[in-house]
# Entry
Amino acid sequence: MPTDPLLEIEGLHVALGDTHALRGVDLHVGRREILGVIGETGSGKTTLVRSIVGLTNPTAGSIRLDGDELTGLGHGRRRRRFRRSGRVQLVFQDPLRSLDPALVVEDLVTEGLSIRGRTTAQERRDAATRALALVGLDPSLLGRVPRDLSGGQRQRVSIARALVSDPELVLFDEPVSALDASSRGEVLRMLAGLRDELGAALLIISHDLTSMVGVVDRVAVLYEGVVVESGLTDEVLSDPQHEYTRLLLAAAPATVRERLAARRDAAAAQANGAAPASTPSVTQASATTPGREAIHAGVRA
# Structure
């Protein structure tokens, strides 16, 4: 657990009809930390981030941001005030569905600033230009609409839209699953550098282990709405203690295990006073988790 947590989730339960999507989840994200939450489809990952931003109502438990309780904000003025503050931002999985196709990039990125008011058109344009620079996009794209952009550019615009309000915490819901291999690698490398540039904390959820290694500081493994294992990323994935984590790792591409081995070797060399060997860059390979029935059979065997 981080010594100075920004986000504290304790005993979080979410029931969706007869389904218990989250069952007693405890998670903490430190300031300037990148936490990854890994799990198959249906494990409760998206319900978790929706609960944090108030799109899903928890059944029980606590969500605190820098000591402020979020679960009791309701859906009235207090919730609207919190959302307009921009303290927490969510980047959705598919930019084609989350970006208004009729708006140009400048308006997409600064829409939240416009809603809050108190900014001039020039201030919003300057903010959009700075946000695009953070995600590696040229300001010449400000006048384009989403259909004129590549998949990687659209996702970067979605991320710039989240960053423009200077948030304390940014949530990423499967941030690279809708991208091709080359764009996936570029976006992952960008995410790894954002924490240092922004001073914000990041929470990344994914079914894909290649989105975690070399990007997130710690990882939490979510299975059927329960965190079954968590810790430093290299430690958890190099020596998984839960059968579900072992199955996820076994189903990942060989490049994931090779990268983990290279990182272990580099850490050992550094501990022994040798110059660390360079480790491979964030892989562009896509992990494929085993089928839901196969995973459940393996865990329960």
